[in-house]
């Protein structure tokens, strides 16, 4: 990251935002009796205030050069399950990792990548949406540069 990067931090998670990127860390709404867990949104475009955990309300605003990165925490018990068996934040994505079929909501031209992982004893889903599948190699490289800076602390 360049010296001009801004660090976004909260809930024991931090990420360096390159110039022109913005982000937020918040606790998502939860079902009754369920502990609310942190959500990280970072993007190359202005994030709307009203958006879902996986970017609903934001992805429809994306241009072809835009990226949305979501890191969503799950219950700590999930860290011991096979789904979250990958150790460490996925830091390197390639264009081949992206598919329109991975999207939570199909938007023509867009593509997504999803990885489940455990870091610092915490279970997470990484969900990345790019504005144009035809630009996947370059956008994956840009997303990977941001993912290199993600740090997660134990609870």
Structure explained in plain terms:
This protein is mainly beta. The protein has one domain. It contains one helix and eight strands. The protein has a five-stranded antiparallel β-sheet with strand order 3-4-5-7-6, covered by helices on one side. It has a three-stranded antiparallel β-sheet with strand order 1-2-8, with no helix packed on it. It is globular and about 40 Å long. The model has no long low-confidence stretch (mean pLDDT 94).
Keywords:
mainly beta, 155 residues, 8% helix, single chain, five-stranded antiparallel β-sheet
Q: What's the oligomerization state? A: single chain
- Helicity level: under 10%
Silhouette: globular
**Strand neighbour order, sheet with most strands:** 3-4-5-7-6
What's the layout of helices and strands?
Layout: E1 6-10, E2 13-17, E3 22-27, E4 38-43, E5 67-74, E6 111-119, E7 122-130, H1 136-147, E8 151-152
What's this entry about, in short?
The chain has 155 residues and is mainly beta. It has one domain. It is 8% helix and 32% strand.
């Amino acid at each position: 990251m360049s010296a001009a990067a801004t660090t976004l931090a909260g809930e024991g998670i931090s990420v360096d935002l390159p110039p022109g990127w913005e982000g937020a860390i918040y606790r998502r709404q939860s079902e009754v009796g369920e502990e609310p867990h942190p959500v990280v949104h970072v993007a190359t475009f202005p994030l709307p205030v009203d958006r879902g955990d996986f970017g609903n309300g934001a992805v429809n605003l994306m241009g072809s050069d835009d990226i949305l990165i979501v890191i969503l925490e799950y219950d700590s018990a999930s860290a011991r399950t096979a789904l979250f068996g990958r150790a460490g934040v996925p830091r390197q994505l390639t264009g081949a990792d992206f598919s329109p079929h991975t999207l939570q909501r199909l938007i023509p031209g867009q593509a997504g990548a999803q990885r489940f992982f455990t870091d610092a004893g915490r279970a997470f889903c990484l969900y990345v949406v790019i504005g144009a599948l035809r630009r996947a190699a370059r956008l994956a490289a840009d997303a990977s540069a941001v993912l290199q800076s993600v740090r997660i602390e134990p609870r």
